[in-house]
Amino acid sequence: MNSRINPSMTRSAILGCTLAWQTADAQLLSAYDGDEPGPRSWITDVTEGNFVGGPLPRAEALASDQSTNRIFASSGRSITTLELVAVDDFNTVSSAPVTTADGTTFRSIRSLAYRNGTLYAYNSGTASSTPPGGIYAVDASSGRASLRLEQALLPVPAGGLFSGMTVDPATNTLYVLIRDSGPSTAIRRYSIHALDPDTGASQLVVQFPENQFAASFDGLAFGNGKFYMTMGNIPRPIGVYNLATGQIEPSLPNPPRFGNGPGGATYAEFLVAFQDGPGERIPAPSGVSAFNSSAGVFVNWTAIRETNLAFVTVFRAVSPDGPFTPIAQVSGNDYLDRDTERGTTYFYFLTVTDTSGRESEPSRSVNVTTPGAEPTADTLSVDRIDARARTNRKGKMQGRGIVFVADGKGHGVSDVVVTGTFTGDFTGTVTALTNSRGRAVLKSLKRLPDATSFTICVEELKRVGFEYEESLNVSTCDSLP
Fold first, then answer.
1. Fewer CB within 10 Å: N-end or C-end of the chain?
2. Which domain holds residue 302?
3. How far apart are CA 77 and CA 301, in angstroms?
4. 419-465, pLDDT tens digit by residue?
5. Per the confidence metrics, is the pTM higher than 0.70?
6. How many separate domains does the chain show?
7. Of 348, 369, 390, which residue sits at a domain end?
8. Is 173 domain-assigned?
């Protein structure tokens, strides 16, 4: 769908802290400022260089509710709520001044972020400012704001600056961008932190090298697994940091300016392309499970049938509420997390990204608790089990379970009595003894001419001087077909 726009702008500059990522159309949005016929802002798609909406009263910050395609923009002392009701226009659905419970108004809102149903706004200042500096929770309909985190609780060093905040909607993690000027304002040390808006607890995500970038940052957005940061020069390119790979990527250029305004020059007309809709969503990974093994936590999932699969991202946290951090990008359907600690519960979920950069919704979360005690050589566990079948010359099939038994150090153990049970076409409980490599073959009690499916499960491992540690089992059952 195309649309012609005539914005009539004499000056055009990307505004501070005005980045937002729109998932449905994979748009990185920013507000641009123009002075005719008065201070106005226009919304643009930075990734495509397209004008997509406006005008608004001069905007200072943007945030996106990526589940509903609603955009929130702060303009002076108010928050204007916008909703994308058609793919080629923004319609204002509400507007309200931002005030505290006692009616105190804000001079400005320098950064916005939408997280899990709550709109967060950053007000610069100290504890003695009116209103005090810090992060506020704002009711987008009424504009009523309540202080959530005081300035002193934010990870801002002395002399530093709060430069932006954003949310990863897949994990509901709130990220903040911090500048530490050090002893000289010519020194720029930027870092990104994951911040808990309820407790103030923060975790460093990345510390950029000193003066890594050629200009100051004053805005932050997150989308497609990447951070986008506005730079402080004009025109302002967009800094890009890939969270999964830990790499700084080439900056995005600033989109072209929108015309020269009425000062003797003609108004420019702009042909703007929009996507016809969000397109088919990539299915979230299914069949996700996590198990302890002698080498770490083994995470697996049902094989992805997406033909344009680029990678599967594995996220991990130590709390069901996050923050979740991407720990690997893989192309198969399993991952061994070796970086684990004893007696810790880990939570995992996955997303799929295709070759076009589209990312799926997150899978369901699974969790596993690692053993509390360090395993010793005298523990036993099932390292692997494979269901197989063998047919004799008379055409009768016998079910088999190939079991590998390991000690706490991951070495095969001989002379272990393995007890297993067949269900399905074959039934019954059987035993077998492991060989010098820790391998045992469980065989069904009967041979059948028409058997088609069965399951074999290990029930028990026994050897004198060893203890069966079930929490270390990689798996205990397998099936055919």
1. C
2. 289-369
3. 49
4. 999 999 899 999 999 999 999 999 998 888 877 789 999 999 999 98
5. no
6. 3
7. 369
8. yes
